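Task card 7
Instruction: Convert sequence to structure tokens.
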Amino acid sequence: MKKNREKSPAFHLRPPKVDWDIRFPEFTHETLPSGTRIYSMPGGKLGLCYLELVFENGRRAETKKMTGRITAAQVQEGSLNHTQAQIVDFFDYHGCSYSLHADLDFTVLSVSCLQRYFDGVLDFILEMLAQPVFPEENLAKGKVFLKSQLSHQLTEPDFVSYRDLTAHLYGSHSPYAYNSTPELIDSIRREDLVAYHQNFYQSGKLSVFYTGEPLGTDYWAGKLKRLPAKGKELPPFPAVEYGAPSRMHAPIGHCNQTSLKIGCGLFPKNHPDYYGMYVLNTLLGDYFGSRLMKHIREEEGLTYDIHSTLDVQLHAGCFYISAELNPASKNKTEDLIRKELKLLRTREIPATELNMVRNYLNGHLLRLVDGPFQSILLLRILMMEFGELEAFYTLRNAIRDISPEELRMLADRYLHEDKMSVVTAGA
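Output:
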């Protein structure tokens, strides 16, 4: 039979089969007599290694506000044996990628370098951490920098709306609630940094995450004994009383756009509903194909950017939607956001839309365990923020199995459009 070559053969697009058997890479875990926990993974083949030292301290440990953040910055400003300039030169000379910063719950030092330099780099880091001198002159310069940085940030609508929203949602008694001010920066004294360092940069509150050539228990024990073993116990975290729905505006002079935040208090990261809410938040506004992006940015053209966020910490958390827009679009945008939240509560999510989110998040999980550097970063999150590796598999299973009705119930429980606070900043 002669074939008709002018007519294309029938073509049926089949969706690719998704493999859900995602496994976390092998790693080792040991606890030293000092209480330090060591997590190690084999490195790649490029002669590189990566290290994170994570101290459990953060704002919870502060007796004076901002001490944790400024201590982390000033540790790098000079040690017993090295000046600030020598510290900078050392990391530059050895080609290290290096950072030290404090967040709400932890202080994290991270460094990557060639494996052949690692032993010397680790010795240098531990000397810097164990014996900072907190020079008065450098502290004064650091304060000037922080106040200048804050002054600039307070002209940015997105920054202002976020800090006003979280301050309201977490409540006045929460360490998560306070915002930086010039007065708080000026109040910090050298003795505040010394006390915070002595009490909360201790090996008993340290976790080590390392990928590279295998190093034994004796190696880590010998190196880390340079850090003080004991300090103060962390105080209990104050009970969180989330702020009631409210509306507020922060005007910013000479500003032509508005930052809109709509949000509510939620729960800490170890809450059992976190995993389902992770899926629901992605569908609503946490990837480019989300509802907020499609309906409000692409179809309506009302915003420069719009997304939703699960902003959850160890002891509390919040949910918010953020949009950057022309002030004339604010009311319509807010109405459409509330409409999207109501739809999540009242209508079942179509299977095709949910499957797209499942596939996107499957790919995201695969990227998180693609190689030792990515995997060790994820391991740090799992152990420090969830307390167990099993959280990875719980999340994987929630992405794969959660039903449209379960998602609708979560939306009804947590994302009621009439229980949201609204904060705007800018024009």
